[in-house]
Amino acid sequence: MHNPSVFKEExxxxxxxxxxxxxxxxxxxxxxxxxxxxxxPFTLHADKENGxxxxxxxxxxxxxxxxxxxxxxxxVFQGPQFYVTPSWYPSKAEHGKVVxxxxxxxxxxxxxxxxxxxxxxxxxxxxxxxxxxxxxxxxPWHVADAPEDFIASQLKAIVGVxxxxxxxxxxxxxxxxxxxxxxxxxxxxxxxxRGCPVTGYFAEE
Length: 205
Prior knowledge:
Layout: E1 8-9, H1 12-21, E2 24-31, E3 34-41, E4 43-45, E5 52-58, H2 63-68, E6 73-84, H3 91-95, E7 101-111, E8 114-116, H4 119-134, H5 148-155, E9 158-164, E10 167-173, H6 180-194
Antiparallel strand pairs: 1-10, 2-3, 2-6, 4-5, 5-9, 6-7, 7-10, 8-9
């Protein structure tokens, strides 16, 4: 991706946090069937060197053929994003040399996938994914809440995917290239328009 140094984020903790908070990612592969992309929720396992992404796909998903072929896969996680109008820049009144832009955060992960067809692995992965997303509910749902034979049949319909993180890159385009007065204008404009604070949407000073 195009990633000027001013927007480049290299802190693993920050990159892992975005992945954890925005787990639904675009899984991209290229092979005999051409380019393929699917939205897939991933779990991050950072206890191993460089980390590992895990997920599952429907058994009928044609992208599994490309994943089994062993070519490199690209996983794109997108975090907060919003349009920036030039009207938010105080510098607009000074010289008018401003244009619209878009602020956003994203992490790209590359690795060689491994397809897994093991019921125990799939049960653990599905359980972990569910636990992460149900954790804040007052009455969280657990995989064990469903009948055992039903879960067994559901597991037969999915296939696991594990992608060791071979490279990871982050781009946090959050007005770092603007003057301080324009940064402040973006923060104020965002808060006024969306009615919420800019925490997580703007580069910290």
